[in-house]
Amino acid sequence: MSDLSNFNNFTMLKMFNLNEKNIQDFKVYDVPIHDDENKVIRNVLNIDVKLVDLKPECSHCDSDDVVIKDYVHKKLKHSTLKNKECIIHYHARRYRCKFCHKTFYEHNPFSLSSMRYTMNTVYNVLGDLKEETETFASTAKRHNLSVNTVIKIFDDYVGISRKSLTDVICIDEVYAFKSKNSSYVCVLLDYHSQEIIDLLPSRHIGKLATYFRSIPKEERNKVKLVSIDMWHSYRTITQEFLPNAVCAVDKFHVLQDFTRRLTQIRIRVMNQFKPINDKPLNELTQEEYRLRYRRDINYYLLKKFNWLLFKTEEIFNDPNHPRRYNHKLKGRYNYYELKEMILNISPTLLEAYNMQHYLKLFYQSDYEKAKSDINPLIEKFKNSNLPEMN
């Protein structure tokens, strides 16, 4: 125990509220970290520790007939030493019960199971994040942790109470980086103030139902309008738990979905003109050469200039805009002329483009005009010959 005695008056024991008699093996040493040129850039304090065998009872059946099965190396980040990176190598003793034959670990005073950092690190990180001037990045740097680790500690241990539902709310999601619950985090937003009401760890319908069921019915009945994207669960949840609310898909997601559908149609049309080089050029008749050239040009326009279908700025709709020479087309054209050439390729594509025009005109309407225009617009889409538009 000489190493232990020399380690700053039992600093290690004070860190974890341990007695010297609890320590079987203990070693402290620095490990140099080198850069690409093999120069030492910093030293990392390493602590090897093994606890005394306390011969515990089986955690499954309470039998005292247990034996040591093996030791598992647990590498834990420890941030109690500010501005000094520290790693604890804890050799955790694992037991096997002779009665029930199950295994279990000895009591771990350093961390909870599956954690890669000590509980002291958690306390220190959360203590720093109480300060308004602190950021995840600054806290991570101080404690020699990654930003993602600090964010995970915050998410795991900080619970923020939700705000009350308002008469108009928005439900959306953001991608959840490395979340264990879901690929997306559900966001509830107050439409009027644009403040977050609450963040939910998952957008799955079962989780959402449990959440809204926990909100008093009187509060839920006050909601009059819910703005959502096109995730089907949000509509179902609104109908079941917000009975007085109208469900509306916001403009951004409607246009986003339409863009996806128009793109599907454009690709379907474009694939009809994929180049077919079944015969050498010198073996083609004049008519075959003309047809192959037309297919090639149509495919080129739909592939190269498809983005023109989604542009509404004046420069793209001005027939008098300056022209530029195109080597493939062997002529001078402006954006307006190129778009007209694309629309003349297929009546299917032209119809889809016109549907986009009707949709964007609707979103330019004022409130009163929109009320009279919405049903005719819906009928246009229902009666379209294009399956992507129905």
Distance between the termini: 78 Å
Query: How much strand?
Result: 15-25%
Query: Shape, please?
Result: elongated
* Major sheet: 5 strands, mixed
Structural class call reads alpha/beta
The total of beta strands comes to 12
Oligomer: single chain
Query: Order of SSEs, N→C?
Result: HHEEEEEHHHEEEHHEHEHHEEHHH
Q: Percent of residues in helical segments?
A: 25-40%
Give Rg in angstroms: 33 Å
Tally of individual domains = 4
Uncertain segments: 1-5
The overall average pLDDT, rounded, is 89
Care to describe what's here?
- The chain is α/β, with parallel strands linked by helices and 390 residues long.
- The protein folds into four domains: 2-111, no CATH class; 124-157; 168-249, Ribonuclease H-like superfamily/Ribonuclease H (Nucleotidyltransferase, domain 5), CATH 3.30.420; 273-345, no CATH class.
- 37% of the residues lie in helices and 22% in strands.
- The protein is built from 13 helices and twelve strands.
- It has helices at 2-5, 11-16, 119-129, 136-142, 147-157, 205-213, 217-220, 232-241, 251-271, 286-304, 335-343, 347-362, 367-382, and strands at 23-34, 40-51, 66-78, 86-97, 103-105, 168-175, 184-190, 196-200, 225-228, 246-249, 324-326, 331-333.
- Strands 1, 2, 3, 4 and 5 form a five-stranded mixed sheet that branches. It has a five-stranded mixed sheet with strand order 8-7-6-9-10.
- Helix 9 (251-271) runs antiparallel to helix 10, helix 9 packs antiparallel against helix 12 (347-362) and helix 12 packs antiparallel against helix 13.
- It starts with a helix and ends in an 8-residue tail after the last helix.
